[in-house]
């Protein structure tokens, strides 16, 4: 047990000497953060485009109409809630359709 204690004390001494380096690394901005953010948004856009191309033409029209309505009423959560409350059958259909288009790598 004394050997274990001694090894841990050596490791603690190394950590204490490098503490400033570790805090600087943790507090600095990550180099790839902006690139990752842009790639995520690009992936979401491509995912949406794929879902639209796989959807039948009737659903594409409905989705474009819904999108136009959402663009006309930004940050209006009340209207979205009312739309979902008015037609629960449509809400279930949309959920099942969205789940069927979910890529396998996102599970």
UniProtKB/TrEMBL annotation:
<feature type="compositionally biased region" description="Polar residues">
    <location>
        <begin position="72"/>
        <end position="89"/>
    </location>
</feature>
<protein>
    <submittedName>
        <fullName>Uncharacterized protein</fullName>
    </submittedName>
</protein>
<feature type="region of interest" description="Disordered">
    <location>
        <begin position="53"/>
        <end position="107"/>
    </location>
</feature>
<feature type="compositionally biased region" description="Acidic residues">
    <location>
        <begin position="57"/>
        <end position="71"/>
    </location>
</feature>
């Amino acid at each position: 047990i004394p050997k274990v204690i001694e090894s841990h004390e050596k490791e603690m001494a190394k950590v204490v000497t490098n503490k400033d380096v570790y805090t600087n690394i943790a507090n600095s901005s990550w180099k790839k953060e902006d690139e990752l953010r842009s790639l995520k948004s690009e992936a979401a856009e491509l995912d949406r485009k794929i879902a639209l191309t796989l959807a039948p033409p009737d659903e594409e029209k409905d989705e474009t109409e819904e999108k136009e309505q959402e663009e006309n009423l930004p940050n209006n959560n009340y209207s979205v809630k009312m739309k979902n409350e008015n037609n629960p059958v449509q809400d279930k259909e949309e959920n099942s359709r969205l789940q069927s288009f979910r890529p396998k790598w996102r599970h």
